[in-house]
Write a structure and sequence with these properties.
- The complex is a heterodimer.
- Chain A is mainly alpha-helical.
- Helix content of chain A is 69%, strand content 0%.
- The relative contact order of chain B is 0.13.
- In chain B, 39% of the residues lie in helices and 18% in strands.
- The two termini of chain B are 25 Å apart.
- Chain B is α/β, with parallel strands linked by helices.
- In chain B, the strands form two sheets. Chain B has a seven-stranded mixed sheet. In chain B, strands 3-5-4 form a three-stranded antiparallel sheet.
- The radius of gyration of chain B is 19 Å and the shape is globular.
- Chains A and B meet through α2 and α4 of A and α5, β2, α9 and α10 of B.
């Protein structure tokens, strides 16, 4: 029989001390930073150390690993660090933060109302996107509040987009009021009318 | 592993089984055992919950892709004495790693030209024991042509078949949790990883962590094959998508690190 050789045992990786790992988060070699971002997860103070390193990290692969570790840690410090990424001027960091928050919905859930009312318009827009991951009824409730109270057309447009996918007939009244509020915005009026057209038959059926 | 409401009965039944096995009179009592891992109960608990359905030559198109495209591309990077390493994880009761061995013996013309190391790993230590024994029933062999069954198996009691000793002794089986880098890293780096139909059971964060670990376990330019309904693109941006005639697979970029 042709041979498949018996494999040779490979030596286990040597253990690394926590100080070395945390220090490696700022190592000049991106491969070592990537590895440290993943290894740090089990260490005391990892959330704060990774959060600090994330602020200055430019390599997308290392950022991804840092975000993954923060998501798995899920501590308040980790959550805050990821949310801070949403506020960055760096588009890559913002999108990484958003992707990570999407998988941290259980940890972010209670913070969503506050994020949807943030003073920063961009945070409110991005937070509408996070509501997409919620249960339909809950998402509808939160986003209707946005439609009812937010003064920015772009924020309401973001809410309308998510409601188009997950919204229920309970959103009809808020959608109609929002259309009146922004009657001067052709895009928003069109988008709202499309969502109303989708939701209205559901309302009739349920009635 | 995540289990939705639809799996409630499945989980309840298995928890009840473990409670009975440990003599626990209440869930609180059993939970206490888990917390301190009394008599290795954590391992028994995980074993009870893992799903282990597989058979030989499952998703054969990926095996086709392995011999026709993936290995020919990998050997272009090899120097004279470099071997080829293939990882089957999770390997369950061994059908997949043994399938890889049989497939290569039967279908890859260069099988004798390279030292080929096949490793099978799983979090479930119970199935690893079964894999090492290499005894399979008719259902597991249903996709194998009869001549291959005759060639690579010998009859075993109770209408079973046991894989030949040469093959059994040439596949290494080991425990590994692909979400934990401490466990995956020790296995070294591979040319091809088969990680089929397991990532779907993880929550999003664990799925990303597993993808990062699998990336680290690939040689630059190495390939990973997922289940046919799975997509790495939705999990992690680390990999390049490669479209071959028989399968879509994911590749660690060639420019990837020499370490980590």
């Amino acid at each position: 029989m042709p041979l498949i050789r018996r494999p040779v045992d490979r030596p286990a990786e040597e253990s690394r001390d926590s100080g070395h790992t945390l220090n490696s988060l700022s190592h000049p070699d991106s491969d070592l930073r990537w590895r440290a971002a993943r290894d740090a997860r089990g260490l005391i103070g990892a959330d704060a150390a990774i959060a600090a390193a994330l602020l200055i990290e430019k390599d997308p692969r290392v950022r991804e690993a840092m975000f993954t570790s923060l998501a798995r840690l899920g501590t308040p410090v980790a959550v805050e660090a990821v949310i801070s990424g949403l506020r960055s001027d760096d588009a890559g960091l913002r999108s990484g933060a958003l992707d990570t928050l999407r998988i941290m919905i259980p940890q972010v859930h209670d913070l969503l109302p506050k994020l949807l009312a943030d003073k920063d318009t961009d945070i409110r827009i991005l937070s509408c996107e996070l509501a997409r991951s919620l249960d339909g009824a809950e998402a509808t409730q939160l986003l209707c509040r946005v439609l009812d109270t937010d003064p920015e057309a772009n924020v309401c447009a973001a809410a309308v987009e998510v409601l188009a996918e997950v919204g229920g007939p309970e959103a009809l009244a808020s959608l109609q009021n929002c259309a009146l509020k922004f009657s001067g915005s052709p895009f928003l009026s069109f988008a709202i009318s499309a969502v109303i057209a989708r939701l209205a038959p559901q309302s009739t059926t349920r009635a | 592993m995540i289990f939705t409401e639809t799996k409630r009965y499945y989980v309840e039944r298995r928890v009840n089984e473990r409670m009975a096995a440990t003599g626990s009179h209440s869930f609180a009592g059993y939970f206490g055992l888990l917390r301190v891992n009394t008599q290795g109960e954590n391992e028994h608990f995980v074993n009870a919950l893992t799903v282990n359905e597989t058979y030989f030559y499952r998703e054969e198109h990926q095996l086709q892709c392995l011999s026709k495209d993936l290995l020919p591309e990998r050997i272009k990077k090899k120097r004279g004495t470099d071997g080829i390493r293939i990882w089957s994880v999770p390997c369950s009761t061994g059908e997949e790693p043994y399938s890889l061995a049989i497939w290569l013996l039967e279908n890859w013309p260069l099988v004798d030209h390279y030292e080929i190391e096949i490793v099978g790993s799983d979090i479930d230590t119970r199935v690893l024991q079964q894999a090492r024994q290499g005894i399979f029933g008719k259902r597991a062999l249903m996709r194998l042509p009869p001549e291959l069954v005759q060639r690579y198996f010998s009859p075993s009691p109770d209408d079973n078949w046991q894989i030949l000793d040469d093959l059994r002794n040439s596949v290494r089986f080991s425990a590994a949790n692909i979400v934990e880098s401490a466990e995956t890293r020790a296995h070294g780096r591979f040319d091809v990883i088969f990680c089929r139909n397991v990532l779907i059971y993880f929550d999003d964060a664990s799925r990303r962590a597993a993808a990062e670990n699998l990336y680290e376990n690939l040689l630059p330019g190495g390939f990973i094959c997922l289940g046919h309904t799975e997509s790495m693109s939705r999990i992690s941006p680390l990999f390049d998508v490669r479209h071959f005639a028989d399968a879509i697979v994911y590749q660690r970029p060639l420019g990837g690190a020499a370490h980590g």
